[in-house]
Amino acid sequence: MTRERECGTFEQLLATPATPLEVITGKIVPYIPIGLIQVTLILLAARWVFDVPMHGSILLLYSVVPLFICANLALGITFSSIARNQLQAMQMTFFFLPSMLLSGFIFPFRGMPEWAQMVGSVLPLTHFLVQVRGSMLKGNGLEMVCEQAWPILLFIGVVLAVGLKIFRRTLD
User: Fold this and answer.
1) C-alpha torsion angle, residues 122, 128, 129, 132 (rounded to 10)
2) Exposed, middle or buried, 73 (CB in 10 Å: 0-12/13-18/19+)?
3) Fewer CB atoms inside 10 Å of the end CB: C or N, the chain?
4) What φ, ψ does residue 10 adopt, rounded to 5°?
């Protein structure tokens, strides 16, 4: 979005009969297969290069991967809608660092202070990590997928709603 603003193609986008939801969906959807390819390469490397065991269902794992990809893409498109130029958009991506720190990826989640756990429980990465670890190492089933998927879906809904609201303001 910010690149289109800077290049002058944003006005052409606004002149189309597409709704804001269609525009945002069109910006997000092409990157989902790219993310799935990346996850596949990482899982192949985990299995064949690092000999990480896979005790659970790969299909259950892949059922939550698109949700996580969509959550990150929705956040990125929302940041892009807020930013006025690419530098501002890049600076907003520093949000992903606290996500890494508060999700349990680097530090144990249960060892964090309660306030950090509350913030971390909002982040999609926290729930995705529980799902990945549960699927790969513990063999968790469908119950875990459902338990970890709804917070990611809620995050997507809230972030997309904010992104749409901001995007509509740029239309006026």
Assistant:
1) 160
2) buried
3) C
4) -65, -35
For the stretch 130-147, pLDDT in tens is 888 888 778 777 777 788
Distance separating alpha carbons of residues 1 and 10, to the nearest angstrom: 7
Note if the pTM is more than 0.90. no
Which tokens in the block code for residue 86? Answer: 């690419």
* CB 19, CB 101: distance < 8 Å: no
Q: In the structure, how many helices (H) and strands (E) does the chain have? A: 10, 0
Question: What is d(CA 102, CA 73) in angstroms, rounded to the nearest whole number?
Answer: 19
